[in-house]
């Protein structure tokens, strides 16, 4: 018999209080303040809602973001009033756009969820040839940067756009009346409509001029190209058409002349039909290009100039005297002879910042009739002029500039002699800076104008001649920002917005393609003919280059790191924590020095007891400018007599304290020359680096990097160069993969996912690392935690050096070991890299083993295997024993030592209401005390299957993607279903170059690697 007892929660409920009744019947205790968000209700009821208007109506700011948890505080969430028909909750939308920030450029697809951009993808449509690098993948985080400039400021005080317009117009009128000079100082725009708009501005203001300033200059190469072809542009090389590549100081797999060459390069580096391209690299710093080269020769820039003249002599048949030492001359002559023999299949590139040197490059490629050298689609992404910028600084200090309007530049930070610029700026009556942040320049001008992020902007771009791209907003402006172009239209007295102007003028550039078509595709290919070049006085240029000499004991070679580039992304924690591909150091810039020079100077690196890397400090002096306490990295492969130092660090303004790291190397960038004569002395103290190279390494664990030479690959069977590990079974040697401890189940039904990684195609660029961060909500832990081996990267790119000059030399030395004592001493010595080592990159993530060691030791079954080959993690089940991490031979699991989300100890984007808007809602944010790792982007594979199911069709080959495979522009990573025997990944898995990591362990991974093949 049931009880009829009556229970109550409070005295008020027992007494039937009216307030209890009200609470029972009202879902929301407080009235939702919809007026604050929705504005005029009458106007709203008659309006339509587009995807961009969504944020306007719901006031999508930190107040509207629901991040509530069961035990957390209640956050108000405002629902749609009129749900946009284009937006389906839970389903991602993609919009084509193109980005160019003055340094980086790419054709993109932007993934949005419920009106929020959350991920950058590559646009793969025909004609979209430029893929996103690591910085562009990370740039989406800049949209949600709480340090952005939110309101226009006049004389340091918050103001309005009407006041800004009035002040600029007044200043322009005053300048015209007084005959003062008006200067527009911008980065390279590459925008036909903006350049037309600037032309109209100058027509209305004859006292105005436009100066283009690139923080990292390519002016010498531009001057040379302009002198020969009559256009201020750069050659767009196609390395897929070259069988022989000779690079003299050009890191074309890095940021040289904008980068973006890795896809074409990788095509020729994968051995097909017994052939692959050959690559010679002559350079000072160890670079991505040098790491990929078949033959890398470290030499000073002075020696590189002599090498360039020697190549010119051999290819052209000239006899200009050169001064090259014996071994250098032998290698240069060998490369030059092969280049001449290659003819049209050869190409020469050079990063030497010297007009005469660049004229020689043009001349040599013309003589070769190089197919990889084309002027038909010249690059328009660098237009800066060193001479024009230097003249501007003189004019500023002379007091002849009345009004200075700047956009996309930060000269107070990036100019070597910024003090002269600042002193000249004080003499300007009106100075305006359009900027995302109140940076070093915007903080001292009379008008600081907040510019929108590119994901909030309209624009057009001509990245290369014969192409036209559109930039479209994917979200309404989060702050009170306005585009530089809109202000120019206003001061020109032109009616309408920049969108109206852009659309009205686009017909002149699209060659008949409709506006909607270009907007949908993101890019239109119009085609163009090759430029006819003029005569080159190559003999005079060669003689001038041959007379170049090193000015001092050390050459400092300034460069940009793969992570921070020119420094405009310094407040981006993803990029700060991104390990440099070569040094594997994050959160720092440093001077790199050769081992021989380090010994002379008393500079050292040391791995200490906790696994962290420590290094000496040095003081560097360039022509009176001094950088003190510069951390030192002893870099294998650094040319003796040279030093390397990265630009882009040392910023302070508008940055969170955690991001204010490194030193400003622009102070040494004298005369826009990336090579400086320097003196260096050791300073006191020890610097603590956040270096991941000594952590989670697979060194000494068997055949990690398998490689062979092209000759052996072509002449011997795969059993010789891709040897299968053997074990003893019943006293018989059998392949290790045939012996199992577990019974396998049938995986032929349904999908079975594999990831193929080609070591020949991987350049170590790191785009996959940042894409994984963005897709999977990977936390940033900061320098101190990285130093403690607690980085959270789900995907790492291991970098290996040979201890001899080649990895083959390492093998020969290892095979020559005799006895235990010899073994110990030899292996200890082999842990040290050679002076000019070969380099190999290897991306490593969870291998998703079919016989996974982690699964057998988990006491709570938090990690288990799925039928589709993925190793799953049930975060709610995990109790953090870390048994799985200890039992993983690949060291790919990460443990959440702390709660990184909403934790003031980790003040990055996850501790920021605005920053958390970038989080992917399909992937939960992990809490403290659980293990996490690569999931093979299961949310992406599930979404692909659901899409195909809704469309009533099977999944097509190439549709299945992971974040890393879709970000990989070189084609090194291919993902797919191996049960589809016609799929690309199935054929790659069956290829004779394929092997598994630590195959002898018997884990049977679903990630397969391909033997690296080198030219000899």
TrEMBL record:
State the Gene3D superfamilies in the record: 3.30.70.20, 3.40.50.740, Formate dehydrogenase/DMSO reductase
Q: Which InterPro entries match?
A: 4Fe4S_Fe-S-bd, TAT_var_transloc_signal_dom
List each coiled-coil range: none
Please report the stretch or stretches of sequence annotated as the 4Fe-4S ferredoxin-type domain.
753-783, 837-868, 869-898
**One Pfam family it belongs to:** Fer4_7
PROSITE patterns (alphabetical): 4FE4S_FER_2
Q: What is this protein called?
A: Quinol:cytochrome c oxidoreductase iron-sulfur protein
């Amino acid at each position: 018999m049931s009880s009829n007892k009556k229970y109550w929660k409070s005295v008020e409920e027992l007494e039937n209080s009216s307030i209890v009744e009200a609470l029972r019947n009202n879902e929301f205790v407080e009235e939702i303040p919809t007026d604050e968000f929705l504005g005029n209700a009458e106007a709203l009821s008659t309006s339509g809602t587009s995807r961009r208007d969504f944020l306007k109506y719901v006031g999508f700011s930190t107040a509207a973001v629901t991040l509530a948890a069961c035990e957390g505080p209640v956050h108000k969430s405002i629902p749609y009033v009129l749900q946009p028909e284009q937006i389906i909750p839970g389903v991602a939308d993609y919009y084509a756009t193109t980005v160019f920030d003055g340094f980086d450029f790419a054709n993109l697809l932007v993934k949005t969820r419920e009106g929020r951009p959350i991920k950058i993808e590559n646009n793969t449509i025909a004609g979209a040839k430029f893929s996103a690098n690591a910085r562009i993948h990370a740039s989406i985080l800049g949209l949600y940067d709480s340090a952005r400039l939110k309101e226009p400021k006049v004389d340091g005080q918050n103001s309005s756009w009407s006041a800004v317009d009035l002040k600029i117009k007044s200043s322009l009128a005053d300048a015209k009346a007084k005959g003062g000079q008006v200067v527009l100082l911008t980065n390279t725009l590459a925008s036909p409509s903006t350049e037309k708009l600037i032309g109209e501005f100058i027509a209305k203001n004859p006292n105005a001029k436009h100066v283009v300033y690139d923080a990292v200059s390519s002016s010498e190469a531009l001057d040379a190209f302009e002198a020969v072809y009559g256009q201020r542009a750069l050659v767009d090389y196609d390395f897929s058409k070259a069988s022989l590549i000779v690079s003299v100081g050009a890191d074309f797999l890095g940021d040289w002349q904008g980068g973006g060459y890795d896809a074409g390069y990788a095509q020729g580096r994968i051995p097909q039909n017994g052939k692959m391209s050959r690559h010679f690299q002559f350079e000072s710093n160890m670079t991505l290009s040098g790491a990929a080269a078949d033959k890398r020769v470290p030499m000073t820039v002075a020696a590189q100039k002599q090498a360039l003249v020697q190549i010119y002599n051999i290819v052209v048949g000239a006899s200009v005297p050169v001064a090259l030492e014996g071994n250098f001359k032998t290698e240069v002559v060998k490369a030059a002879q092969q280049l001449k023999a290659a003819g049209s299949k050869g190409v020469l590139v050079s990063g030497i910042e010297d007009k005469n040197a660049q004229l020689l490059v043009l001349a040599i490629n013309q003589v070769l009739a190089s197919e990889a050298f084309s002027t038909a689609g010249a690059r328009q992404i660098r237009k800066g002029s060193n001479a024009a910028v230097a003249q501007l600084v003189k004019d500023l200090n002379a007091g002849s500039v009345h009004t200075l309007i700047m956009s996309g530049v930060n000269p107070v930070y990036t100019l070597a002699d910024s003090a002269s610029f600042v002193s000249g700026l004080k003499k300007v009556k009106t100075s305006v800076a359009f900027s995302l942040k109140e940076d070093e320049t915007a903080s001292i001008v009379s008008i600081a104008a907040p510019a929108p992020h590119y994901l909030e902007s309209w624009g057009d771009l001509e990245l290369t001649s014969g192409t036209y791209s559109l930039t479209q907003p994917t979200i309404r402006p989060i702050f009170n920002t306005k585009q530089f172009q809109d202000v120019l239209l206003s001061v020109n007295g032109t009616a309408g917005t920049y969108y109206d102007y852009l659309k009205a003028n686009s017909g002149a550039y699209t060659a008949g393609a409709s506006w909607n078509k270009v907007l949908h595709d993101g890019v239109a290919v119009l085609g163009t003919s090759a430029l006819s070049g003029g005569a080159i006085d190559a003999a005079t240029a060669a003689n001038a280059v041959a007379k170049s000499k090193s000015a001092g004991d050390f050459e400092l070679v300034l460069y940009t790191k793969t992570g921070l580039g020119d420094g405009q992304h310094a407040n981006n924690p993803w990029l700060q924590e991104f390990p440099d591909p070569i040094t594997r150091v994050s959160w720092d810039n440093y001077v790199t020095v050769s081992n021989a020079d380090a010994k002379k100077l008393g500079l050292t690196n040391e791995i200490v007891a906790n696994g962290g890397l420590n290094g000496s400090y040095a003081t560097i002096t360039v022509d009176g400018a001094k950088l003190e306490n510069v951390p030192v990295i002893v870099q294998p492969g650094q040319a003796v007599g040279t030093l390397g130092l990265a630009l882009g660090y040392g910023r302070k303004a508008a940055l969170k304290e955690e991001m204010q790291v490194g030193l400003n190397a622009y102070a040494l960038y004298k005369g826009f020359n990336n090579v400086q004569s320097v003196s260096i002395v050791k300073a006191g103290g020890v610097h603590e680096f956040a270096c991941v190279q000594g952590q989670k390494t697979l060194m000494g664990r068997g055949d990690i990097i398998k490689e062979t030479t092209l000759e052996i690959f072509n002449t011997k069977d795969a059993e010789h160069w891709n040897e299968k590990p053997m074990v003893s079974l019943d006293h018989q040697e059998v392949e290790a993969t045939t012996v199992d401890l577990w019974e396998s189940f049938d995986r032929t039904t349904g999908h079975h996912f594999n990831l193929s990684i080609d070591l020949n195609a991987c350049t170590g660029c790191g785009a996959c690392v940042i894409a994984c961060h963005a897709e999977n909500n990977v936390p940033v832990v900061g320098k101190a935690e990285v130093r403690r081996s607690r980085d959270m990267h789900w995907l790492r790119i291991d970098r290996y050096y040979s201890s001899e000059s080649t990895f083959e030399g390492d093998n020969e030395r290892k095979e020559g070991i005799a006895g235990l004592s010899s073994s110990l001493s030899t292996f200890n010595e082999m842990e040290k890299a050679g002076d000019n080592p070969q380099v190999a990159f290897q991306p490593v993530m969870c291998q998703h083993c079919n016989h996974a060691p982690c699964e057998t030791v988990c006491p709570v079954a938090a990690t288990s295997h799925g039928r589709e080959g993925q190793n799953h993690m049930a975060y709610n089940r995990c109790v953090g024993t870390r048994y799985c991490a200890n039992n993983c031979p690949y060291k790919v699991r990460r443990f959440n030592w702390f709660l990184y989300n909403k934790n003031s100890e980790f003040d990055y984007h996850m501790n920021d209401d605005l920053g958390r808007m970038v989080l992917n809602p399909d992937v939960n944010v992990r809490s403290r005390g659980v293990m996490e790792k690569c999931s093979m982007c299961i949310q992406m594979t599930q979404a692909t299957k659901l899409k195909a199911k809704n469309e009533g069709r099977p999944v097509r080959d190439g549709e299945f993607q992971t974040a890393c495979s879709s970000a990989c522009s070189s084609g090194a990573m291919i993902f797919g279903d191996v049960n589809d025997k016609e799929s690309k990944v199935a054929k790659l898995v069956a290829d004779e170059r394929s092997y598994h990591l630590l195959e002898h362990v018997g884990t049977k991974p679903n990630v397969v690697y391909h033997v690296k093949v080198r030219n000899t």
